[in-house]
Amino acid sequence: MGLIITTVSSSVLLEADARKRTLGCPSRVCDFVKHDRATVQFVLQLLSNGLAMIQMSTLCSLINWATRAHWASNPASLSMTRFWNSLCLRYIDCRLPLRLLLPCLAFVVLTAMPVAIWVGAVTPIASAVISADTLSIPAYYNASQIRDWRIEGDEQPSIVSNEHGLFSYSVGIHMQASLMNSASSSSTTDGQTRRHRKYDTSRFEYIGRSYGVGATVGVEDKHLQNEWSQGYDYHETNFYTTVKCAYNASSDYQLHSTNDSTIYMASGNLPNSGNHGPEESAYLGLGPDAIVGIGVTGNDEDSRRILAFAAGKNYAYLNNIQCTFTFNPTLFRVVVDLRDNSVTVTPLYPIREFFLGAANLTHSLVRQFSIIAKLQTSLHVSALGNAFNQSITDYVQNSRAHGNRRPAYSFDAATLPGVETALLAMADDMLVAYSGAQMYIQQDSKQVSVTVSQTAYRIGAKTYIYLIGITNAIVILCFLAECIRTRNWKDLPALGYLDPAAMLVASA
Asked: How far, in Å, CA of 55 to CA of 117, rounded?
């Protein structure tokens, strides 16, 4: 009867493993398993010992019955009697000769293993189940507020400050400090993938580039966050931004002095200025040496997105650099790990269009660099120039640590890629900022499907489940074989050598 219990138990475990059944969380069982591990292990040890005892007791009984039937017509030496007695009781009799002691030792060790196997077969193991849900993300059905907001203009964009953070369409003004930090930290020094915080209050980090997506992660996903959620992923559209910089020795965009000794003009035409040039911006400085000016055309009719540097002696390595931005609408996969508050974004494939009027977004974004350059220049220093300097220096260290085939070991060789890296980091974060503004200023959002990974518990490890199934099958086969061989133990002697009372009667 005992084998019925072990057979049903092992069969249930095999069926659950084959069908990948799990204990869904949250539930009382999950809470108990997670928060009271000591009690769980105590219960599992009792259960495993009981199930293993049934199997091994059956096996020892088969040995006992077989030897009793054999000795009914065959003599046995004292050593053999002790040997079979040791097997039935599963203990090591040190009085046995070596030729019998070793098999006895092996048998005792083997019959102790089912307890451990049962523990592995019934222990709850943390796993994951996939479910579907929805998430609000920014939409661009109404993008009327995405435009070139001038510093000196009378009309200024709306600003929203709430529990999630600060949101504005004039990101170059209201988020300049965060963008400066992005520029200076855009290159890692150890060759590792860059990790950088989101601009909101969510405390989530991007691993690698953000590509402008994931603005609502950690903000609009509270319904997805609980102690059992491992993470989720979804798809979102934005721009795959690339930047290519080069020196243009014949650049028309240069620094010029004025009648005021503390004001300098950065002016000149850009390749995409058309009939809207020249571009002009005034900068404060005790001299031109500490000025870094960035010119961006106001011509939104040209689809090219170009910016030009005009820099003084202290930042001479930036002078005459011109950079071209390319914005390709792309579908991205956003993977959110709720256990370490990280966001990983992967480009999937290009799409035809981001949204109608997306050119306003790219034009406004590039114009922010000119605004930041102006705001971050003081009488003595250009904070933006220092940020680019840090990015270039870190790029040198990164190249050495990463072991690139053509590493930029020198500062001069690293200047252009270092600037490109900083511009990309800032552009990505600007796109995230615009997305946040759409969400919380324009109140423009949409629902997307998300795939949620939640903790669940499956019973037992596959290896141990199959091992216990095999063990149980071996015991059953041995039982059936002996039952057939002895015709249901028809001629089994009544005298049992493990029964002390029977042995006393027999000796008398």
From this structure: 12
Alpha-carbon distance of 17 to 8, in angstroms, equals 14
Q: Report the distance separating Cα 114 and Cα 148, nearest Å.
A: 74
* pLDDT at res. 404: 56
Two tokens at 46? 């009792």
pLDDT surpasses 90 at 285: no
Handedness of CA 31, 36, 41, 43 (dihedral sign): negative
Report helix, strand and coil shares of the chain as percent, to nearest 5: 45, 25, 30
Instruction: For residue 436, give the nearest of 131, 247, 74, 178 by alpha carbon.
Output: 178
Q: Output 6-11 pairs: Cβ under 8 A, ≥24 positions apart.
A: 6/51, 6/54, 6/55, 6/472, 6/475, 7/472, 7/476, 9/51, 10/121, 10/465, 10/468, 10/469, 10/472, 11/469
Q: What is the pLDDT of residues 33-82, one digit of tens each?
A: 888 889 989 999 999 999 999 998 888 888 877 777 766 667 777 777 78
pLDDT at 227: 83
Distance between CA atoms of 371 and 150, rounded to whole angstroms? Answer: 8
Q: Tens of pLDDT along 393-446? A: 998 888 777 655 555 578 888 999 999 999 999 999 999 999 999 999 999 999
For 76, 93, 101, 106, 264, the CA distances from 97, given in Å and listed in that order, are 15, 9, 6, 14, 104
State residue 494's pLDDT score.
Answer: 61
421 and 186 Cβ atoms separated by less than 8 Å: yes
DSSP run (H or E) holding 71: helix 37-71
Q: Please say if the pLDDT value at position 209 is more than 80.
A: yes
Check: CB of residue 468 under 8 Å from CB of residue 11.
Answer: no
Q: How is residue 401 written in tokens?
A: 């640590």
pTM of the model: 0.79
d(CA 46, CA 30): 20
**DSSP alpha helices (H): ranges in 72-130?**
78-89, 98-122
